[in-house]
């Protein structure tokens, strides 16, 4: 299993016309959002979750799954 920022999602995420395959893709997408949007609590929470998984090796969740791999 790939670890760190190169770790792929179980399912590709499509957002804003882009396919996000890895944690790095998602992080770059969030960082590229306009400042006002990037600062929104939901995007900040998403970024924190990415960091926890990438740097701490935690479980990743697919958006909308609600299960977080349980």
Q: How does this structure look, described?
A:
It is a single chain. The protein is an alpha+beta fold. The protein has one domain (4-56). The chain has helices spanning 23-31, 35-38, 41-56; strands at 8-15, 18-22. The longest helix has 16 residues, at 41-56.
Number of helices: 3
Round the mean pLDDT to the nearest integer and report it. Answer: 85
Q: What is the straight-line distance between the termini?
A: 18 Å
Q: Largest sheet at a glance?
A: 2 strands, antiparallel
Strand order of the largest sheet: 1-2
Radius of gyration equals: 12 Å
Helix content: 40-55%
Percent of residues in β-strands: 15-25%
The ordered H/E elements are EEHHH
Extended strand count: 2
Shape: globular
State the gist of this model.
The protein has 70 residues and is of the alpha+beta class. The protein has three helices and two strands.
List the helices and strands and how they pair.
Layout: E1 8-15, E2 18-22, H1 23-31, H2 35-38, H3 41-56
Antiparallel strand pairs: 1-2
Helix pairs in contact: 1-3
Features:
41% helix; 2 strands; two-stranded antiparallel sheet; 70 residues; globular; alpha+beta
């Amino acid at each position: 299993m790939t670890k760190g920022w190169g770790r792929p999602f179980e399912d590709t995420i499509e957002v804003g016309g882009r396919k996000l395959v890895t944690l790095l893709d998602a992080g770059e997408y969030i960082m590229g959002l306009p400042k006002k949007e990037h600062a929104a609590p939901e995007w900040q929470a998403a970024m924190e979750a990415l960091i926890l998984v990438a740097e701490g090796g935690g479980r990743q969740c697919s958006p909308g799954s609600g299960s977080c791999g349980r």
